[in-house]
Amino acid sequence: MPLPDAEHAGPRSAPDAEHPVSGSPHPLPYYEDPSPSSGCRPPRAWYARSDARRMSLHGAWRFRLSPTARGADTTFARPDFDDADWDDLRVPGHWVLAGHGAPVYTNTRYPFPVDPPHLPDENPTGDHRHAFDLPAGWEPGPALLRFEGVESCARVWLNGQEVGHFKGSRLPHEFEVGHLLRARRNVLAVRVHQWSSGSYLEDQDQWWLPGVFREVTLHHRPAGSVADHFVHASYDHRTGLGTLRVECDPAGRVTVAELGLDLATGQSATVPVTPWTAETPRLYDAELRTPGERVPLRVGFRTVRVQDGLLTVNGRRVLFRGVNRHEFDPRYGRALGPEAMRRDLLLMKRHNVNAVRTSHYPPHPAFLDLCDELGLWVVEECDLETHGFGQQEWRGNPVDDDAWTPALLDRARRMVERDKNHPSVIMWSLGNECGTGRGLSAMAAWMRERDPSRPLHYEGDPSCADTDVYSRMYADHAEVARIGRREEEPLADPAADARRRQLPFLLCEYAHAMGNGPGGLSEYQRLFETYERCQGGFVWEWIDHGLRKRTPYGETFFAYGGDFGEELHDGNFVCDGLVLPDRVPSPGLAEFKKVVEPVRIGAGLPRAVRIGNLHDFADLSHLAFRWSYEAEGDVLAEGPLTVPPLAPGASAEVALPPKPAGRRGREALWTVRALLAADTPWAAADHEVAWGQLPAAPATPPPVPRSAGPRPRHGEGNLILLGPGAFDATTGVLRYLDGVQLEGPRLDVWRAPTDNDEGAPWQPGPRPAEQWRRVGLHRMRHRVATVECGRDTLTVRTRVASAGSGLALDADYRWSADGGRLRLEVSVRPYGDWPCPLPRLGVRMGLCGSLMTARWYGGGPGEAYPDTRAAARTGLWSMPVDALQTPYVRPQENGARIGTRWVELARSDGSGLRVEGEPEFWFTARRWTSEQLDAARHTTDLTPGDRVWLHLDHAQHGIGSLSCGPGVLPEYALTVAPARFVLVLRTVR
Ligand code: IPT
């Protein structure tokens, strides 16, 4: 067992600001000294429960904020100090989210001069005081004062006695305080500095949020209680046997009743077990008993290996359907309650997420207990990032400077020791974006020694010198394919290259989920399924870090960088998650769920469906399948489908029942769904895991009317009448349909650029949005060339172009009528040499604002774009126009519905407008224009007008992932080319 070493034991009376650390040429105050801590106990394994007493110190503490760390006055730590004029502050919490100072968001730049290890004089410093009584019956004796997380540096006193100080914000620290405790009125005093040498190691892309943001607890440590324990539980897939050995200081016994085991600590036993996997998270309840304590354990047997170029668990290749998870809550920042953690995991499991990278620091320890229980593969990352040194060509990078190595090792130890007993944690990650250096190698060496059972991950070193997997971020599809074939660009050093080429590959970040997107997920998944070396990845990222804020009028919105007056910030780059800040799933999460579904349901032999089991471990016996036969969204028949309990990797053709009889002419299809057969801890029975649709019968359009339609004629007030339509004789624009006023339709090619259209500033330009604005697509003008009345048609010829540009789109609108319907055929011919794709190609209409509900047959229920369309299923859908919008934190194009055969926009009495496609179109409806959407910075900038704007699009440009990754794949670009499309309009009553 690890014993307190020199570094950890620390002096009893810690150095302080007045008596800085000596030995260095220029003595540094403790908060600037790169050394990690003083006075702390060595780190140990965390556990949620035991029979030893503990006490939470959460609640309302007293608080005072000073603008600088230089104030040397520590009298506040005295128990008799009068804090009457201080404020109350909720602990755990961040003071900047409680009305003291403000949060700051930067991506890679340090929000202070890069002058390591120094910090600016402006160093907000929060003094905290908390008085508490011990609960009745608390026995005297050793006790640990434990901090689960304090950003970024804390100095601690109990009852006026200084116990030490520490850095390492997302890591636990403990002090022995038993000798200082008294039954009544203990006074804990904590001084927290926002900036410290530790801040140089914590340059993660997130808000800087100082404070005591995780629990503070007091742990009674009876004589003979557990100082530390290490559960080793492996599984041999060839024999089906698990081996358990628990190391413990002091020695004791371990019992696993279910396995009939009663072992001395240190002794191992090998017995038949059901192994733990993320798909089948089998845990065995056990108990560890030492002379002074009983600790319940939950043991999961599994073995992680890198062998034959693959990462395996229990002998099988695993495929990560992962996300990067930051801890975030829109109100409380990183002070996350247990409900938010559980919510995250339930949402993940319900969306087929099977892996989490704890970007970029150890999460709250309780989160990992939940991962063990619910089943997630976890890549646990250390609290380490020095990204901002990249801007100085990594000069002075702490990870390559021996003065910082003790701090790096301390971080590695605190993570590994705390979390070593979780079966869900299958890999340790050294940190994120630190460049390369000796300090990283020292961390890796220590981790390998201490825990040889888990492979190591780190992305920032292309040579993979310290890692067991080849990991990359944002590599494009083509490169991933080359890596999959082990044909990547060679490293300069042949030995390193040969070694890396043998390693399994994963994308620790890909598919940047900023705003609308990410696009191209299906194509990545195909690569992961094609190349066994490509073992999946982790979408960047799980949640938008938008902080709840109010406008002066009291409306709430989610704030991003710059909304708190920061002098340096990175805008909405902090909002790039699959769920919105309030954990409402974005369309990106629905897309991810569909793309990674562990059962593939697709067309098979005639009258059969092909079912593939893409699980790595589970057979299909936990799922129940159902079929339905639908004609234009009407379910004509449905029933259970018997699918054999296919083994992982297996597939089968399953016969479908005979087609039910139905009305002819309507499009029909089969929908086959895989549902949970029984309740699970993460979803109830009938939860849908996967689905697929198969065409059954095409739509047969009604016969073309034999006689020609009505002739256009001139009406009153400069109108041309054709069937139900009345057109402006000068502009040729439709003004009334069946007497109902409307605006348009007119050609429209603009969309409010998405974050991916804008692209990250470092992406090679010109990026799509920039090109579009250059060409003037956001300010197109329409010139009507001719309005021609034919025998049974009205033809309007126009040129659509922007000021200063010679490029144009010639758009002809050819109208005809049939009974109560108007038929519009739009032909578009580009003029000039277009340098860029179009955002969209379609028409836009302004309609009466009382058309509040949309009902359509086509893709839904959520939004879709050409490269984010997997989750759209064909059906009959209905929702209020407002619900068609996705409230991305920074407003941008959203809400398109794909594959629409027809849509009706209706008032509450059911009357309204119907549009049919020949055969399909995209529709988007919203109560503001694309221009208003484009101008808005926050959701509260958008106010509904008196019109509903309806876009009927022939095509859309893809979404891609250019906000921090590859752009739109060529097949999804909306290239400028001649086009023709047809829409049929009529009113419904
Ligand atoms: C990458 C970071 O690792 C991650 O923390 C986040 O910033 C992400 O990008 C973008 O949102 S680093 C990037 C420069 C490739």
Characteristic terms for this protein:
hydrolase, mainly beta, TIM Barrel, 11% helix, Jelly Rolls, 59 strands, 5 domains, Immunoglobulin-like
Tell me briefly what this model is.
Helices cover 11% and strands 37% of the residues.
Unreliable runs? 1-19
Terminal CA distance: 79 Å
Query: What's the CATH H-level homologous superfamily of the largest domain?
Result: Glycosidases
Tally of individual helices:
12
- Percentage beta strand: 35-45%
Keywords: Glycosidase, Hydrolase
Pfam family, one: Glyco_hydro_2_N
GO molecular function: beta-galactosidase activity
Protein name: Beta-galactosidase
Summarize the structure in words.
The protein has 989 residues and is mainly beta. It folds into 5 domains: 37-220, Galactose-binding domain-like (Jelly Rolls, Sandwich), CATH 2.60.120; 228-305, Immunoglobulin-like (Sandwich), CATH 2.60.40; 311-593, Glycosidases (TIM Barrel); 597-697, Immunoglobulins (Immunoglobulin-like); 713-988, Beta-galactosidase, Chain A, domain 5, CATH 2.70.98.10. Helix content is 11%, strand content 37%. The strands form 13 sheets. Strands 48, 49, 50, 51, 52, 53, 54, 55, 56, 57, 58 and 59 form a 12-stranded antiparallel β-sheet that branches. The chain has an 8-stranded parallel β-sheet with strand order 30-29-28-27-26-33-32-31. Strands 1-10-9-12-6-3-4 form a 7-stranded antiparallel β-sheet. Helix 2 (338-350) runs parallel beside helix 3 (365-374), helix 4 (405-419) packs parallel to helix 5 and helix 6 runs parallel beside helix 8 (521-530). The longest helix has 15 residues, at 405-419. The protein is globular. Residues 1-19 have low confidence and may be disordered.
